[in-house]
Design a protein that fits this description.
Structural class: alpha+beta
Strand order of the largest sheet: 7-14-8-13-12-11-10-9
Helix content: 25-40%
Largest sheet: 8 strands, mixed
Strand content: 25-35%
Order of helices and strands: EEEHHEEEHEHEEHHEEEHEHE
Length: about 290
């Protein structure tokens, strides 16, 4: 199983046709998600800005705009870059019939790519998003992997950077070494990273000549997003994650960012404890609805 940005996905290669198909693991029961929208107050403007920046920071290989939704495909590598994201209100009032017609249209497009249809939904959602979530549930879409999007303000720091910055190619080798990521997933990962238009920090921590932790920072104007944070299992609980995250945030501040953000699986308690200590607070929740 591949560990990609704490999103668990298995890439399966078929000989005919040679297209990876993503299989999702169930992480929670398919209870009504109405509590996702109402449990925690959301700063809508700030949360929408983070969602926008995160799509740019983790680009899809193909992307279409469709009546308020962004449709993203990347040959099955990661849910983030292979899902439908409602980003702004539709051009017309969306009755249930209109929403179902849009869902069917998207299902046909994803079937053509031999991918399960997946929607990324957030607690930022308006009434249409709430209705969309319930319609997807009625259509048999299951909830996969609820995550929390966290954010923190940045300030000047005299801290020395403990990380080493690498080229994309060098960093990807380190990432594959640490996570065990193999082909064809590594090639797809490389293609996504090459598509990032903003300034990036491909960072590692090393002991001797060996990488022990790695992470990616992406700056877009006032925001720096953190992705692919990973520490070697045998090197955990030694403060390496803290050192790497604080170094990436410090780097982002030096690039002009005033706020950091990241996404963490809801039940990853050690990560939540670390980010709480570093001053991160909850921005909003997100989850995926995956077609049967």
């Amino acid at each position: 199983m591949l560990a990609i940005e704490n999103l668990r996905a298995r890439i399966v290669c078929e000989t005919t046709p040679p297209i990876p198909v993503i299989e999702y693991d169930v992480y929670m029961s398919d209870a009504s998600s109405i509590s996702f929208f109402t449990s925690t107050p959301v700063d809508t403007g700030a949360a929408q800005r983070i969602e926008e920046a995160s799509m740019n920071a983790w680009p899809a290989m193909q992307q279409n705009l469709f009546d308020g939704w962004v449709l993203r495909w990347s040959k099955g590598f990661t849910k983030r870059s292979n899902s439908i994201v409602p980003v702004y209100p539709a051009f017309k009032t969306e009755s249930n019939e209109i929403l179902l017609d849009k869902i069917r249209y998207c299902e046909n497009l994803y079937a053509r790519e031999q991918l399960q249809t997946a929607f990324r939904l957030t607690s930022i959602g308006d009434r249409n998003t709430v209705r969309l979530d319930h319609l997807l549930a009625e259509r048999g879409y299951k909830i996969r992997e609820r995550c929390d999007v966290l954010t923190c303000p940045l300030s000047a720091s005299s801290q020395n950077l403990s990380m080493t910055l690498l080229t994309l190619e060098q960093w990807l080798k380190a990432y594959c070494y640490l996570t065990g990521l193999g082909e064809p997933a590594a090639t797809l990962h490389n293609l996504i990273l090459k598509g990032i238009a903003s300034e990036c920090a491909f960072a590692v921590l090393t002991e001797g000549n060996e990488p022990v932790a790695c992470g990616l920072g992406v700056v877009e104007h006032e925001l720096v997003g953190l992705f692919d944070i990973y520490t070697h299992p045998e090197k955990r609980r030694r403060g390496l994650g803290r050192s790497l995250v604080t170094s990436l945030l410090h780097w982002g501040h030096g690039q002009g960012a005033s706020r950091g953000y990241l996404q963490v699986v809801e039940d990853n308690n050690p990560a939540h404890a670390l980010y709480d200590e570093l001053g991160f607070t909850h921005s909003h929740a997100c989850w995926y609805r995956i077609a049967p």
